[in-house]
Structure formats: structure tokens, C-alpha cells
Amino acid sequence: MKQKRCDFKSRGVFACSPHFLRQTARVPFASDAQLDALYAQINERWFDLSLPLCQMKWSRQLTRAAGNIDVKKRIIKLSIPLLVDAFTSVEASFEICGVICDSKERALEEILKHELIHLWLHERGLPSGHTQAFRIKAREIGQPKTRHGIARPLPKSGWIYICPRCNAQIVRRRRFSRLVACARCCKAHSGGVFDARFKLKGRKISAAMD
Description:
Layout: H1 32-47, E1 55-59, E2 67-70, E3 75-79, H2 80-83, E4 94-96, E5 99-101, H3 104-123, H4 132-140, E6 159-162, E7 169-172, H5 183-189, E8 201-204
Helix pairs in contact: 1-3, 3-4
Protein name: SprT-like family protein
InterPro entries: SprT-like_domain
Pfam families: SprT-like
């Protein structure tokens, strides 16, 4: 019998779809001029004005990372789902790069600082990933970690699936029509082969969960 291999997607679960996010009517809260001003402020305070100008864009397609940067093209993308939609609740508070952020303005600043470390390394001719040099610079600017803990907002309806081992979550508009398992755990513990031990447990989303 041929073994089924997991289809590894961005969220680390089998057959994951990123198009579940509730899209609010809110538009990005920072204009191009405000983004440029924040960029200049961070560049001056933390990088001695050594960084070149970058183009910055808001993106609804960016749903896993709160931001990313193409260091060669000097383009920074910022996530609307994670930096705008996730902060619609007044109680919203998330850890970003080890810093507690209770507003979208603070979250944007920390994400932009993070992305500019990548650019700073590239401009110095160094590898621009999460290297030891990256982590040293991150600590210098007050970021003890390299990841964010922003929770993406649930839609009003659909299905939520949870891995029984690592608690990874996936949200879908429709119920899976087949058995699915956590790709991260299958990869880590069964060579990337589907393993029923990591079968995702699903339940229907109700208004009370939101």
C-alpha cells in the first residue's frame, strides 16, 4: 500500500488554505507618508541613517508573517490581517519579537524594526537571515526574540481544526471531506508520511467562539 505524504503548506498543516481570514472594512491605519516617517525615525535611531530608502506595501495575502522584506529589491510588505485586523479588539495584545504590543501602532514599529535588521545585514554584505549577527542586533534594539505571537481573527462561520499534539490550528470555510493530519508533526515524527496519531480534530465555529 502506497503511503500518502503530507502536503506541507505555510501553516504546517495538511491541506491548509490561507484564505479564511475575516476581512474587515478597516483600511491600513498608516499612510505612505506615515510609514516613511516611521522608517526614517527607526533608521536614524537604530541604524545611524545607514539604510537606503525602501518601498512599503500593505498586503492581505501576507497571512503568516506580519511583515517581510526583499532586501535586493528593497520592498517591505506589511500584513493587513496581522497588523490591522488582529487589533480590532480593544483588548488585543500580542508578543512581537519578545515585546508586548497592545496597539497596532506599536506592533507596526516592532515589525518594521525587525525587517530593517535584515536590510541592515544585507547592506553590510552579510547573510540577511536570522543569523547570530541578526540576533545580536535585535537584542541591541530591544527585541529578545525573532517571532511574533499575533493571533489571526476567526471568521464568523466555518471550521477550526487543532492538532492533538502541538495544538497548531487551521481554520477553513468548509469542512474537510477527508482525513487530514498536522504536517509539522508528521514531518517531525513519521518521516513526512501521514500519521493518524496527528489527525486534526475539527469543530464548527459558532458566534460564541468569536
